[in-house]
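Can anyone check this?
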Amino acid sequence: MTKGELFVISVGGSLINPGQVDTVFLKDFRRMILGQIKKGRRFILITGGGKLCRDYQNALKKISNPTSKDLDWMGIATTWMNADLVRLMLGRITHPAIIKDPNIKVNFKEKVLIAGGWMPGRSTDDDAVRLAKAYGSTTIINLSNIDYVYDKDPKKFKNAKKILSVSWKDFRVIVGNKWDPGKNAPFDPTAAKTAQKNGMRVIIANGKNLKNLENILNGKSFVGTTIF
């Protein structure tokens, strides 16, 4: 990964708001991004909704009888709120508007472009893939609260094995072909199909370990799973 390269990073909502806004993580993340920008790098950051998303969706369900589309829109709105938080905390180096439609390309001159969710039935993983394609990046760094992808759910199966690298073909056997908002998949199966078609590489890593993220950006050895 070279100086001046554009990096697409999906920042999971579990990092931004695991129960409340994690200001410690965000301060450290901000410091890391600013340091990387001094090296001449640029970023597209896509934010998830996290606990804020679930709280608002659950509140809506208690108050009325929302459709699945209503719940999706509620969740998308929380990704926009998190996106604005990240945009404002980074200041002038960011494009002034968050991207709400990854299919509309913006000729941004700033160092950072921030995006949130797009539309019902689509995940932020799908947004990341579309943005990577639009801006010519072949690698997506997907940050969440897990260190690796496993061959099965490690919370349910003690014999689950971590995966260091896996082909898209084999990965899609693990996660299936249909996206379900309630499904605990490390990467959206629908987005995986598009990433495979466009020859993209996705690195899944734990965003809490920012030194590890720097290793990824610098082309060094890292903890995580590479899907190619």
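Reply from J.R.: I decoded it. The chain has a mean pLDDT of 94.
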